[in-house]
Amino acid sequence: MSGTPELATVEVDRERCQGTGYCEQLAAEVFEVADDNVAGVVGEVRTEEELKRVREAEDICPTRAIRVRLRAPGTTRPPA
Amino acid sequence: MTRPGLLDIAVITSFAEADEILKSRNFMQDQLLEPSKAPALQGNLNSLHGVPHFQRRRVESALFRRSSLLHFEDDILIPELRAALRRLAGRAGGAGRVRTPDLPLLVRSALVRASAALLGLDLADDAAVDRLVGYSTTIAEGRDVIWATRDQTAVVNRVHAAWKQLLEDLYLPSRRRRERLVEEYAAGRLDETELPVDLITVLLRHPEALSGPDGADLIAHEVGLFLTASVNTTTVATPRTIEFLWRWLEEHPEDRARLDDEAFLRRAAQEALRLHPTVPYLLRQATTDVVLSTGRAVARDELVRIDISAANRASSVFGADAAEYNPHRRTDVSRPYGLSFGGGIHMCIGLELTTGVQSVTAEERTAGMVIRILRELFAAGMELDPENPVRLEPGTTQRKYAAFPALFTGL
Asked: How far is CA B127 from CA B122, B123, B133, B170, B191, in A?
């Protein structure tokens, strides 16, 4: 979906991550827990529905390892 | 009498192994206590796994949002604690130095009100608060009974009786009131904003999150878990912090100037929790053959007992003086409290209720109940009573207090 505005940037603090997988269960298109039991960001947030679930993931994370920052409207990523 | 085989279970004392096991999806939670010895453990959040656990946790996490945490701290805990301190001052008749023989009891009564709000237990008056204090104290003995070195039968019987009384006296009336409110809301006769935000109401509204043994009142079981976790652990953690911090201050009097510094008090509390976790052991069972990163092999169905206190004293993680108390400890680890709040999917849901939200931005932070209590007590001039020292309770392997007197010079 190159050119579609990305609504937020998402980061996971690897040191804080407990590998609960709550984020993956809430937003599998954005988060994935790797074999080392640490979550990583594998996708982008492009819909309001995804943003809602990613926000919930940020909230439910027991160690606040997830950080969601809204992007300014109209910001897009360059096509791959 | 301890649980058969408990002492035969392999003990994990390595921080790295403990951390890996707690995070691993190849280990399941197990209970230290036999169900017959502690009421209503079955089907609570701690005993669930996989999808049922996530469903329950997701629903209950709504209770621990920042706005709720601030409400518990600002609107309930601190006013109640200040009222308790005023009552203490009143009983002393205006004397300069006010003594209390039981600081944990004073803290517990404030915590009980905050916990009751979290759980959804209606407390009509001070007498109801006192009864809940009594119930929670007795029920806490059930969680600790496995560490008792004396006969456990009498304790277990008291715990069962207290649990039954709690259900009849406070839980069932509170639940019935909330059932009526939820019905009114479902029928469109009540706005959502008029519904309480508490554990009983949240679970009534989300029956899909209640999977567990048939016929069990799982909401009651959850109330029991949260009551123990919210009241008893904080009631234990607070005096422990005070005891260790006080000893530190005797050797480092310059730190008395920091007793209103939230960050210092948090580190003080985290150090006490690290060295003396309120839950000293966690049991896990391997769901498959596992070889840990250290090379330790754990067979499928094998139980391991994680010694949290030992793991938290790893010098590789916390420094060469890891066995000592140091509120100025600096480590690279993101959890200065070590594994005292567990890890992985069962990491304590009340972590931020206890020690605060430590987000990146200042406006998102909260202090946490332990730190708020400490600030209030030190602001009231709390000191340990040199004429009546703290005494540990015999007959248990846990660090419990038989007596914890305190002085206040600023009431």
From this structure: 12, 8, 10, 12, 32
Inform me whether the C-beta atom of residue A76 falls under 8 Å from chain B C-beta atoms. no
Cβ atoms of residues A27 and A53 within 8 Å: yes
Considering only the C-alpha atoms of chain B, give the largest distance between any 2 of them, rounded to a whole number of Å. 66
Residues of chain A numbered 33-72 and touching chain B (CB < 8 Å): 37, 56, 59-60, 62-64, 67
Q: Report which of residues B305 and B402 the model is more confident about.
A: B305
What is the phi/psi pair of residue B121, to 5°?
-100, 120
Phi, psi of B226 (to 5 degrees): -70, -35
* Number of Cβ within a 10 Å radius of residue B341: 24
Mean pLDDT of chain B: 88
pLDDT at residue B60, rounded to an integer: 96
**Is the Cβ pair A25, B345 closer than 8 Å?**
no
Nearest alpha-carbon partner for B38 in B224, B170, B215: B224
B118 vs B198: CA distance, rounded Å:
5
Q: What is the pLDDT of residue B1?
A: 40
- Spatial distance between the Cα atoms of B406 and B97, rounded to a whole number of angstroms: 10
The pLDDT of residue B150: 59
Q: Looking at per-residue confidence, does B136 or B30 come out higher?
A: B136
Residue of B nearest to A64 (CA): B359
Strand partners, B12: B306
Q: Residue B215 pLDDT > 70, yes or no?
A: no
The model's pLDDT over B51-82, given as tens digits with 9 standing for 90+, comes to 999 999 999 999 998 888 899 999 999 999 99
Relative to beta strand B98-100, strand B290-291 is unpaired
Contact B54 A63 (CB under 8 A): no
Q: Is residue B92 scored above 90 in pLDDT?
A: no
Model-level pTM? 0.89
DSSP result, B185-244: HHTTSS-GGGS--SHHHHHHH-GGG--SSTT--HHHHHHHHHHIIIIIHHHHHHHHHHHH
- Give residue for tokens 């052991």: B281
Give A76→chain B minimum CA distance, Å. Answer: 25
Compute the nearest-CA separation of B253 from chain A (Å): 33
Q: What's the CA gap between B108 and B169, in Å, rounded?
A: 19
Q: Amino acid identity, residue B68?
A: S
The yes/no answer to whether this complex scores an ipTM above 0.95 is no
Neighbours of B73 (CB within 10 A): 20
Q: What pLDDT, on a 0 to 100 scale, did the predictor assign at position B398?
A: 67
